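User: Sequence in, structure out. Go.
Assistant: Echoing your sequence, followed by the structure tokens.
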Amino acid sequence: MRILWRPFGFSRRLLKVESCRITESESLIPLAWASLIQKLSRTPGIFLLDQRKRFSTMPEIETNQRDSELFSPPSDVRGMTELDRTAFKKTITIPVLKVRKEIVNKLMRSLKRAALQRPGIKRVIEDPEDEESRLIMLDPYKMFTDDSFEKGELSILKQLNVNPQITKYNLELTYENFKSEEILKAVLPEGQDVTSGFSRVGHIAHLNLRDHQLPYKHLIGQVMIDKNPGITSAVNKINNIDNTYRNFQMEVLSGEENMMTKVRENNYTYEFDFSKVYWNPRLSTEHSRITELLKPGDVLFDVFAGVGPFAIPVAKKNCTVFANDLNPESHKWLLHNCKLNKVDQKVKVFNLDGKDFLQGPVREELMQQLGPLSKERKHSVHIVMNLPAKAIEFLSAFKSLLDGQPCGSELFPIVHCYSFSKDANPAKDVQQRAGTVLGISLEACSSVHLVRNVAPNKEMLCITFRIPAAILYKNQTLNGDNHEDPPIKRQRTDKDF
């Protein structure tokens, strides 16, 4: 008998169910074998691998493998390039327990081990044959007959006058019941990497597909939209961020083509056209880290400011901020976001090349900050250079930047310069490359922070150091053996370089 069910789980699709009693001759497994399984399942270190004569001591791995087999989409979707949601229908057998509806909540607390744990599928459904009863979905890998219940569970069932007899039902799963990674794993060629992650930028899912995934790009984009609430557009980067304005060409894989978006990061709001500016949500932690280094009254020069993820939070701390970006679109949205976050009176915004910004507005302000009255100054000066592909090259702008006699070295600006490295020792590599540009050794007077792993064997790092007087001022000599500046306090990193 096939029965149409009410909507279940988040799929809101109809569930087809076939009901039958499990008899001794038609049980899910032979009764004698079930008894042995129950004894072994109570033995520490022994876990059922399948319903045959093999066992495993790695339950979490085997459970994942079995779960992926039972709850994976049909095999005939392999190679699909245009999404057909109707092709993902699949019927599986699930054991269930019939109980009175008034005791469901109390009973479920005692059946956590036995109940089905599968996102998108309700563990409790209505009984089509008895409106006063409910059916509890059970784990098909643990529950075979009434002997599958543990003693404590059987005791609760007896107290609540529940018959432990297990019945089986055929559930029809649909596209809505499968996770995105399960769908893509079933569709893409077997053994190929599956893309189920992406960078979320407001309503946009930003993917970076590999060559073998490109034939399935439109399907992948639609799956990302379907499986992630709030995502209405999926895009793929089709070139590297190596142009002057730090944006990249993108292809809309699926959904709307509107790239105007709004994001929230660390309690601040940013609006921009994602197709014309640079934004990376994976730098949220780094934005916070730098912000926390500054105290009220400090000064920040943001050389490659983008739309303001460093400048705006720092300005909110009552710091003075000079923010610059060469990209006219970034400059426009930087101004907009300063007003949006009510810091436009604390941020001076520039639209210059990084070198021109350093040798112009930064130089002028540093001449005042480090002038005759600088000894009375108690605040710090920080310079952020977040352009990992090229920022180290801009360090040369600091050479002989200032005139006059240097003040105390503790007042010199602190630089936070970002870079990529593919070297086996990325921290040392960044220190050496930065030192080469400046003409000094930075190994004893800098710290290196690992920001994130960008790709296999490619790291993004931030080197922090205080600019020495011999670099910053004209007509100064550098004593390579006795560096005048104390080393910046070493910061802990997540990885041992």
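User: And one key feature?
Assistant: Residues 354-369 form the longest helix (16 residues).
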